[in-house]
Design goal:
Length: 365
């Protein structure tokens, strides 16, 4: 262990989960924290998670080896400014935000590039706060690391090792590459889902026919429209440049599809649908899709030897066959770690009851 003291600014779901994992792995590490609510600090201290019984001052973070910024992006930037000149030269500041450009630009403006390494753990839940933080939340989840132009390679390697020790899968990316990628696979899909729901809402008749008959396809593709409107408003404003690029590209894609439909161009439609199907099918672990019903569940499962085998044995001993099984790496909006797909609804119901009886926490979609 090459660190003795770690600070957390914000101790909610992500910050709390990282702190709990660190404490479990490195019992001798000293953890201090500030949070928006004094009760959070009191709760964390009562759990033995942090060393301070009351909120810290900025000066208390001076001798930290790492400081995790775990508040919304703009708040993280405010704390970054306050930390400048109040940390030791070996300290590395990192964040857990899902958008990196704003904070990286501020780091550059402040001349703090040698002491900042960005981070984005792609795990989470619709639940918030320290009360819902879990030591195992980051297990087998991708954790994007975004160094600066001034980052020391040795420090980046050390931070990558720290992330890996949490059970996460570290990936090092340029921050602009990160924001473009997440805009494509997360931010744009949310905008599309919200827009599609609003389109159907406006087009529906007085009897709510569309709402009434909305089934698998519509519900699957718009599930993420149930996410926090405030959070997505913040993400859209923080990642405007990359989202706008992809929105423009998507609108061009829609124009091409519209032209193919308008021209009754069967070849073009088949080519577009086949290319999309092949790419989608190549993605590990199919999620619920619009074309077929998938009988799946997610299980909170510690990443330990024999864990998956135990689940498989329980099901097999009760004559339940698994169609597909695997670890979910990108769990930004999933609680579970282990993904199981069954052959039919009857098998799914039986698996849920059986695993629940064995005290596994089950999540269905």
């Amino acid at each position: 262990m090459q660190f003795q003291k770690i600070g957390f600014i914000g101790l909610g779901l992500i910050g709390g989960s990282i702190a709990k994992r660190l404490k479990a792995l490195y019992n001798d590490v000293t953890i201090i924290a500030v949070a928006g609510c004094a009760s959070t600090i009191e709760e964390a201290y009562a759990q033995g998670l942090i060393a301070n019984a009351a909120p810290c001052s900025i000066d208390d973070f001076y001798d930290c080896d790492y400081i995790f910024l775990c508040t919304p992006v703009q708040k993280n930037i405010e704390y970054l400014r306050r930390l400048k000149g109040n940390i030791n030269e070996r300290c590395i500041i990192t964040d857990v935000g899902s958008v990196k450009t704003d904070i990286h630009r501020e780091v550059t403006a402040l001349g703090m590039e040698r002491q900042f390494i960005g981070g984005h753990p792609m795990a989470g839940s619709e639940k918030t706060g320290l009360a819902n933080a879990k030591e195992s939340l980051l297990e087998n989840a991708y954790y994007i690391i975004t160094p600066t132009a001034g980052s020391d390679n040795t420090q980046v390697d050390a931070f990558r090792d720290l992330v890996a020790s949490l059970g996460a899968i570290p990936i090092v990316l340029d921050y602009e590459h990160h924001d473009y990628a997440t805009a494509a696979i997360s931010h744009l899909p949310h905008i599309i889902a919200y827009s599609l729901v609003n389109l159907v809402r406006r087009c529906d008749d007085a009897d709510n026919t569309m709402k009434t008959i909305a089934a698998g396809g519509f519900k699957d593709i718009t599930r993420i429209a149930s996410s926090s409107p405030v959070m997505w408003e913040n993400i859209c404003l923080s990642n405007r440049e990359q989202i706008l690029k992809l929105l423009d590209s998507y609108m061009e894609e829609l124009k091409e599809m519209r032209a193919a439909v308008d021209d009754a161009d069967s070849d073009k439609l088949i080519d577009a649908f086949s290319a999309a199907k092949d790419y989608r099918d190549s993605i590990t672990l199919h999620a619920n899709g619009a074309l077929k019903q998938i009988y799946e569940l997610y299980i909170d499962l510690l990443d330990e030897a024999g864990g998956i085998a135990t689940v498989a044995t329980i099901l097999a001993s009760n004559h339940l066959s698994i169609k597909n099984i695997g670890i979910i790496h990108n769990r930004e909006f999933e609680d579970g770690v282990l993904h199981l797909e069954m052959y039919d609804a009857k098998s799914l119901d039986a698996a849920v009851k059986l695993l629940s009886h064995h005290h596994y926490t089950i999540y269905e979609r």
